Amino acid sequence: MGLRTNKITPQAVALGSQVSLTLSVRYGLGNHQNLISHDNIVNLNLWSWIAQVVSIIDLIFARTAVAAFLLLLQDGMHHWTRYLLWLIGIVQAAIYGLSVGGIFKQCSPVEKLWDPSIPGTCNGVAASAVDGYVAGGIGAFSDFFLAAYPIFIIREIQHMKRATKVGICLILGGGVVAGSAAIVKGISIKNITNIEDNTYAMANLNIWVFTEMWFVIIFGSIPTLRKVFLQFSRDIGSAIMHRDIEQRPPNNMEDWAQLRELSGSGEREGLASALGVSLSASACSDGAR
After folding, report:
1. In the predicted model, what is the mean pLDDT of residues 142-150?
2. Is 212 exposed, middle or buried (0-12, 13-18, 19+ CB in 10 A)?
3. Least confident residue range of 46-50, 126-130, 193-197
4. Containing H/E element for 42?
5. Same structural domain for residues 149 and 39?
6. What does pLDDT average to over the chain?
7. Is residue 187 domain-shared with residue 237, that is, in the same domain?
8. Which pLDDT score, from 0 to 100, does residue 179 have?
9. What is the DSSP string of 224-248?
10. Cα separation, 40 vs 24, whole angstroms
């Protein structure tokens, strides 16, 4: 239950962040500032900063969820490496938390961050950019570390099939994509120091912020959804097999054997249905079960 909660929380927070970004785009994010009305500039800046702050917080939850999954996967093995996972989780959470604080300290008063017409100063922009570079570097390292970590621990797990081990390594290895996005995001941070055309400059940064966020969530969630995918595949395969068999007359022993196997406890009803025999409502219900 705890791991499931860890997976749901990042997705819920990411949804809120995506909604905020969508509202910012609605007001003109990505357009040049001289093409947007003052009221829309205020609204798009506000929602864009909200989206960025929430996405930063979400990355903390998402990486923590991946680390929790890896801890569960180890099942008591490699005691000393478990501390590395804890360290990665704590350090990236602390750095990203400081980065959020730096965002709100860029301007005084803070409202000037999204409303440039308010009297005040924005002397903290350069310092916030440095915070962003550091956070981006830590984030990229964390993504690469979490992507490579399963390779070193999963080979010694005895109760898991080789195909499953390879699949988990490949899926979590997709975190390399998130790490690459974090690097590009760090490079893009310098653009937001261009306060003369901030509405245009922030669009590119947001692209990479959300690319990193969603890739961390997607690749971190897929392994825990394996049972859902398997059950879905079985249900689809069973439905297709039933349909194919029932659409042709059972004129040989192979068809009779397949029908008997699929029908299970409702053998007589399944066979009768395949032959087109009209059954009573109760018999049909039993056959369906």
Report:
1. 85
2. buried
3. 193-197
4. helix 38-74
5. yes
6. 76
7. no
8. 86
9. GGHHHHHHHHHHHHHHHHHHHHHTS
10. 9
The domain of 203 spans 2-222
Rounded distance, CA 286 to CA 289, Å?
5
More confident residue, 267 or 145: 145
Of 273 and 64, the structure prediction assigns the larger pLDDT to 64
**Which residues are CB-neighbours of 205 under 8 A, at least 6 positions away?**
52, 185, 188, 189, 191, 192
Whether 240 and 193 map to the same domain: the answer is no
> How distant is the alpha carbon of residue 29 from its chain centre?
24
21 neighbors 47 (Cβ within 8 angstroms): yes
State whether residue 108 is helix, strand or coil: strand
Question: Could you tell me the CA-to-CA distances from 95 to 142, 174, 179 in Å, in that order?
Answer: 12, 23, 16
| 102 and 188 share one domain | yes
The set of long-range contacts for 72-75, using a CB threshold of 8 Å and a minimum separation of 24, is 72/3, 73/150, 73/153, 73/154, 73/157, 73/168, 74/153, 74/157, 75/157
Q: Which amino acid does the sequence have at 226?
A: R
Decide which of 206, 222, 238 is a domain's last residue: 222
The pLDDT tens digits of the residues spanning 51-87 come to 999 999 999 988 888 888 888 777 666 667 788 888 9
CA–CA separation, 176 and 265 (whole Å): 49
Task: From 166, 191, 222, give the residue that closes a domain.
Answer: 222
What domain count does the chain have? 2
Cα distances (Å, whole numbers) of residue 153 to 32, 148, 150, 160, 165: 49, 10, 5, 12, 10
Q: Output the pLDDT for position 78.
A: 60
Ramachandran assignment for 14, one of left (phi > 0), alpha (psi -120 to 50 degrees), beta (any other)? alpha
pTM over 0.90? The answer is no
Residues 6+ positions from 80 with CB-CB distance below 8 Å = none
